[in-house]
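User: Reviewer 2 asked us to show a designed sequence for the structure in our supplementary figure. I'm pasting the structure tokens here. Could you produce the per-position amino acids so we can include them in the response letter?
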């Protein structure tokens, strides 16, 4: 697209979406948010920038390639799954233990 308004606003919206994505990532797993939705918002931000500019423009500005991000995510998930096996627990068992919260009826 060649609209200067779209190209300019896409840069601003991309930055806002990436900041919001980091906020959702840091918000945690017990509240709405977390890694999955943060990753989706970040990908949508980069897709918007690719629509406004070109894919080559976005790739030149990324520090790491998307394959590096995907590979590191798979490696972290595999490590989190295999770590309990060293403690005699099943795959993906929480290593830190389980908290016992009192139940209010």
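Assistant: Here is a per-position design you can include in the supplement:
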């Amino acid at each position: 697209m060649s609209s200067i308004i779209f190209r300019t606003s896409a840069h601003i919206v991309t930055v806002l979406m990436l900041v919001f994505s980091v906020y959702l990532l840091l918000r945690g797993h017990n509240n709405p948010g977390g890694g999955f939705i943060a990753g989706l918002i970040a990908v949508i931000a980069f897709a918007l920038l690719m629509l406004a500019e070109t894919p080559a423009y976005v790739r030149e500005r990324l520090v790491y390639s998307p394959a590096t991000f995907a590979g590191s995510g798979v490696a972290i998930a595999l490590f989190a799954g295999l770590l309990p096996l060293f403690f005699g627990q099943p795959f993906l068992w929480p290593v830190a233990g389980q908290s016992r919260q009192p139940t209010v009826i």
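For the response letter, you might also mention the following. The two ends are 58 Å apart (CA to CA). Residues 4-27 form the longest helix (24 residues).
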